[in-house]
Amino acid sequence: MQHFTSVKDAYNIDKLVNEALLMKKMPYADKHLGKNKTMGLLFFNSSLRTRLSTQKAAQNLGMDVMVMNVGADSWQLEMNEGVIMNGDKAEHVSEAAAVIGQYCDIVGVRSFPGLVDREYDYSELVLKQFMKFTGKPIVSLESATRHPLQSLTDLITITEYKTVERPKVVLTWAPHVKALPQCVPNSFAEWMNIANVDFTIAHPKGYELAPEFSGNAKICYDPKEAFEGADFIYAKNWSSYEDYGKILSSDPAWTVSEEKMKLTNNAKFMHCLPVRRNVVVDDAVIDSANSIVVQQAGNRVWAAQTVLKEILLTQM
Ligand code: CP
């Protein structure tokens, strides 16, 4: 594995999931692989799970880890090439990324979309510039359009908890007070579309994901219908792709409630976290025995560790 920025870098998702589940049983079996190697974690945005789980994963593989909040701890970076840098950006990504590449063997980057200019966000400029100038493998810690470490985690978790060979998995939009990116649903859809699951995406009209992500998923516009017979309910808010970055609905009928969960096949409840209680999901659901959000977050370590191991093996 050279980089890890989307499902396309995974090659064989079943192999990755099996490897992760094995790693979960023997977390330190590969501690020699990262000896004298350094992982750099660059955050343009806040994080709890991605930051801690990736650091733990790298440490489990014997790597040293350096973490930086870009912009807050370092200089503001200019991403565009050929510009006259007479504004507030003190350093160009071409030097910054190249210098980071001198210190690190693998570099993780988190950079959210601005949700103003769809073309700019979907061009993934920040990720592409780091891939261009760092000269080292780049791992997406959530980019403008995808969150692949989260999606691998989600598939690991579904594989662990499924009770039928081909479960019905429902990605359901839920209300939120802020306009959120499409990264998690885009990425989840991209992975579920090639996994052995019966996949439905449910959302109000106007919240269609880009067709390259929704793929062949069944689309449902009814907040209850999609839940019928579901084995997994994966809740997430996202802002509109079509009316880019806008909130079009705050209809509480889309909140995940006990009443809707009763329509399912005793479904497990999943969410990538952080989650707004009683907006996205009712307390009664997230506090129920069917909620696996904490176990899901725990699996972030094994997803990250599997990806880092694959990259370290490529470097040998
Ligand atoms: N799910 C997730 O990426 O969590 P953080 O934003 O806390 O890293």
Automatic annotation (TrEMBL):
One of its GO terms (molecular function) is N-acetylornithine carbamoyltransferase activity. Keywords: Amino-acid biosynthesis, Arginine biosynthesis, Transferase. N(2)-succinyl-L-ornithine binds at residues 142, 176, 236, 276. Carbamoyl phosphate binds at residues 47-50, 75, 110, 147-150, 272-273, 300. It comes from the Bacteria. It catalyses: N(2)-succinyl-L-ornithine + carbamoyl phosphate = N(2)-succinyl-L-citrulline + phosphate + H(+). InterPro entries: ArgF'-like, Asp/Orn_carbamoyltranf_P-bd, Asp/Orn_carbamoylTrfase, Asp/Orn_carbamoylTrfase_sf, Asp_carbamoyltransf_Asp/Orn-bd. Residues 184-309 form the Aspartate/ornithine carbamoyltransferase Asp/Orn-binding domain. Pathway: Amino-acid biosynthesis; L-arginine biosynthesis. Its EC number is 2.1.3.11. The keyword Transferase applies. Residues 3-160 form the Aspartate/ornithine carbamoyltransferase carbamoyl-P binding domain. NCBIfam families: PRK04523.1. Belongs to the aspartate/ornithine carbamoyltransferase superfamily. SOTCase family. Catalyzes the transfer of the carbamoyl group from carbamoyl phosphate to the delta-amino group of N(2)-succinyl-L-ornithine to produce N(2)-succinyl-L-citrulline. Is essential for arginine biosynthesis. Homotrimer. This is N-succinylornithine carbamoyltransferase. The gene is argF'.
